[in-house]
Description:
The chain has 86 residues and is mainly α. 59% of the residues lie in helices and 0% in strands.
Amino acid sequence: MKKLSPEYYRDLEEIQAVDFALVELKLYLDTYPNDQQAMQQFNEYAQQAMQLKRNFETKYGPLQQYGNSYTDGKWSWRTSSWPWQI
């Protein structure tokens, strides 16, 4: 199994925290669709999530499949860690 750096885990945990906040805000907005402050917060987290994922992929390779992440010229999917390896 490939040894991953502590920064890898820190960066991944930060993405997971922001994604969790987005899920919770989405559920809240399903119930309160006119809450402008929640919508603004959702958009801020969405922007933050995109930036975190872009940075993560630049450092470590693709994060999501099915067209949600671009690939590099090396097709890094086969060299990246699998979910059960992290």
